[in-house]
Design goal:
This protein is an all-alpha fold and 73 residues long. It has five helices and no strands. This is Cytochrome P450 2J6-like protein.
Length: 73
């Protein structure tokens, strides 16, 4: 559910004026508050989540029991 919420929020923010401003003036926009800061935080959280999932999969990996997409690679 958390991933679905993150993707929904990022799509809303990407379609906004804030995203266009961020793409035009990235250095300036990093210093200003706004919804684009939420987007950047979601990206950080998503990276952390992915790293944690990969770490769990590496610890519990069984070549004879491929549970999901991550186990296949």
């Amino acid at each position: 559910m958390k991933l679905m919420k993150w993707f929904d929020l990022t799509l809303q923010i990407e379609a906004s004026l804030w995203a266009q401003l961020y793409n035009s003036f990235p250095l300036m926009m990093r210093c200003l508050p706004g919804p684009h800061q939420t987007f950047l935080q979601i990206l950080k959280d998503l990276k952390d989540f992915t790293r944690e999932e990969l770490k769990k999969h590496k610890q519990n990996w069984d070549a004879s029991d491929l549970r999901d997409y991550i186990d296949c690679f």
